[in-house]
Every structure is written in structure tokens, then in C-alpha cells.
Amino acid sequence: LLQAKPLPLKKTDSFLFQSSEYKVSVNFPVEYQDNISSKETESGVVFTLKVSCKVNDDLYFMSVSKHSVQLTKPLELAEISMKSFTETLKGEIKVQKIFTQNKHEGYEALIYLPENEAYAHYKVLLIDNRQYQIVVVDKNVTLSAIASDFLKSFKAL
Predict the structure, then answer these.
(1) Distance from first CA to last CA of the chain, Å, rounded?
(2) What residues pair up with 16 in beta bridges, in sequence order?
(3) Distance of CA 7 to the CA centre of its chain
(4) How far apart are CA 15 and CA 4, in angstroms?
(5) Taking the model in full, what pTM does it have?
(6) Which residues contact 19 (CB under 8 A, 6 or more apart)?
(7) CA–CA separation, 57 vs 40, rounded Å?
(8) How does pLDDT run along the chain (157 residues), one tens digit per residue?
């Protein structure tokens, strides 16, 4: 009798999320969930796409808010977004700096979250009528290889 050996499982290094409508792509480390919500504002309806997953206790999150008007002063708005995110989570910005992607400037920050004894590795970028946020929340000041790969994989298309 021949015994069949089980075939090794093929490991998928990442789960690609891509949206032409929201002009974004990012590789998540595991299977993700996504949803779209809308909110009426003074300048029209804002549609927000949220995509996230968890690996153990670490959260991987990306959102794109699509506004009905062009966003002016994108770097100033990115800074406001970073500070608002920090305040909402009762955090403290430890490090912040400007980064550039495809000639567009945004902010990235390391934010300490005392209530969770965790850190948010946060990036925000505004292009045209879209606001992108990408975050990893974990217990480490320094990024793990998985978290680093996730943040590096983010592309505003």
C-alpha cells in the first residue's frame, strides 16, 4: 500500500487589498475585513473605507476618506489629522516627521497610548480629495518585520 504524504501548505506572505475607486493598495499580513461608511458634512458626503486585521494583539489598519471637494493645504491637514488621531486615543506623540510618497508630503508619528500600554505607528497623507491613514498598534517602540512590511507596502495610487 502506498502512503500519500501530505503536501506542504503554500504560505501566502500577504493579503493584498487594492481599490481603484479609493486609489490605494496595501499588503495585509493576514486576512482582513473591510467596510465603507458615509457621513454628511458641510462640504458634501465623505465616504470612508476602513480595512483592518489583527495578528495576535497587534492591529493593522488602513483608511481612506474620499471627500467631495479638493483638499487644500494637505500637509497642514495631515498634521491636524495626526493630532486629532492622537487626542482621540488619549495618546502622546513621541516622534513625528514629514515623509514623502510620489512627491506628496504627509506625516508619520510614533504615538504612545498609555491606556493600552501600546504604540501606534501612524502615517497620514492627503492627495486631491482623499485622506489616507495607515496604522499599526502594538506593544513595541520599534517596528517588527511584519509591521514594517505592512507600512512599506502602502501605496496611494
Answers:
(1) 56
(2) 27
(3) 35
(4) 30
(5) 0.89
(6) 25, 49, 64
(7) 33
(8) 444 444 444 444 579 999 999 999 999 999 999 999 999 998 899 999 999 999 999 999 999 999 999 999 999 999 999 999 999 999 999 999 999 998 999 999 999 999 999 999 999 999 999 999 999 999 999 999 999 999 999 999 8
Compute the distance between CA of residue 104 and CA of residue 148 in angstroms, rounded to an integer.
Answer: 20
Cell numbers at 120, concatenated: 501606534
- In b/e form, how buried is each residue of 102-131, taking b as 16+ CB within 10 angstroms? eebebbbbbbbeeebebbbbbbbbbbeebb
Contact assessment for residue 61 and residue 54, using Cβ atoms and an 8 Å cutoff: no
**Cell numbers representing residue 156 in the block:** 496611494
By C-alpha distance, which of 24, 33, 30 is closest to 12? 30
